[in-house]
Amino acid sequence: MTGLNVRHSLQAAVPSMPRSRVVFLVAMVVVSCVVHRIASHAQAPGAGNYQANANEVTEFKGTLSGVRGNVLMITREDGTEVQVQFPDRLESLRYVAKASPSAARSGALVRFQTTLGPTGAPLSPVEKLTFFAPVNPRQIKGLAAQQFIPGVHTANRQRPRPGQPVTGKVTVVGQLAMASPQGIMVRAGQSPVQARVSPNIQLEAVFNNLSLAQPGDAVTVAGFYNPPNDTLVKGDRVTITSERVYGEAAPKAERNPRGAKQVEEATTPAEEEPEEAKDAE
Fold first, then answer.
1. Is there a contact between 174 and 193 (Cβ–Cβ < 8 Å)?
2. List of residues 6+ apart from 26 with CB closer than 8 A
3. Reduced to 3 DSSP states, what percent helix, strand and coil does the chain have, rounded to the nearest 5?
4. At residue 15, does pLDDT exceed 60?
5. Cβ atoms within 10 A of the Cβ of 279, count?
6. Cα(100)–Cα(249) distance, rounded to whole angstroms?
7. How does residue 276 score in pLDDT terms, banded at 50, 70 and 90?
8. How far is it, in rounded angstroms, from Cα 81 to Cα 65?
9. Residue 74: count of CB within 10 angstroms of its CB
10. Which pLDDT belongs to residue 62?
11. Residue 91 to residue 222: CA distance in whole angstroms
12. 166 neighbors 160 (Cβ within 8 angstroms)
């Protein structure tokens, strides 16, 4: 219905209504129709909107094929190309890889979990040491922020009495000061923590960015989409797993010795002329 038809209908329905009032109502109807059409287009499947009405749960695995802005391009296991928008929570986007002992350099950011005894010393060797990249803790809410703030953090956030050491299950976060096959020392804020390490200690790198990700890395996605288009996904949890080992030097490309090309050309027999060419001479 056009604005003119709406105005005539209102005037016919309410003959005594002032003309200015009719014009105002017509304008409101037209604006409402325009807003509705824009909203319908924005929420249409395939329009590039990852959040509107995205209430269908999806979980899948695939391989990373590229990144465009804040969207991951992923090839699903069935061969379908899927676009996954970054999760809203920074800690929910993770790059995971095994780490080499050579990554245990002084100043490296690390975290580990342990149980502290009555004297504040770890009761058992460290089983897993995680290397991570710095982030702005203000971008992370709740207890998850403790994973990036140097210190000795208890699970229940309870602080010991003045003069008493921290005890119980804790997460130690800080800079690596020393590492050896026997133990490590971490500068956890104002509290240096020294701990023994297990002979079978697990070393891993967990980064909340894509600085080390490469096409072909394995990806696990949990998120939501707006049916029926399951190729536009709003990520809730995204984990990229690499076969490369963090801390290991990349293999150098082999270089031919100086003059190798000339030697190869000199030792390669020249092609014989075809018989036709010899006959022509």
1. yes
2. 3, 6, 7, 10
3. 25, 40, 40
4. no
5. 7
6. 10
7. very low
8. 9
9. 27
10. 98
11. 14
12. yes
- Phi, psi (deg, nearest 5) at residue 10: -65, -40
User: Of residues 33 and 57, which shows the higher confidence score?
Assistant: 57
Cα distance between residue 39 and residue 37, in whole Å: 5
Question: What per-residue confidence (pLDDT) applies to 14?
Answer: 45
- The Cα-based distances of 248 to 36, 123, 183 in angstroms read 56, 31, 21
Percent of the chain scoring above 90 in pLDDT? 56
Write down the pLDDT at residue 133.
Answer: 96
Extract the runs of DSSP E, i.e. beta strands, from 13-156.
56-68, 71-76, 81-85, 93-98, 109-116, 126-131, 151-154
Q: In the predicted model, is pLDDT for residue 277 greater than 50?
A: no
- 155's tokens: 């699970």
Token pair of 93, please?
Answer: 């986007």
SS3 132: coil
Closest CA to 109 of 86, 132, 92: 132
- Count the neighbouring beta carbons within 10 Å of the beta carbon of residue 205: 22
Tally of residues, the chain: 281
Bridge partners of 171?
113, 153
What does the alpha-carbon distance between residue 138 and residue 141 come to, in Å, rounded to a whole number?
Answer: 7
DSSP type of residue 87: P
> How far is C-alpha 163 from the geometric centre of its chain's CA atoms?
41
The type of residue at 156 is N
**CA–CA–CA angle 206, 209, 213 (5° rounding):** 80
Please state the rounded mean pLDDT for residues 93-118: 96
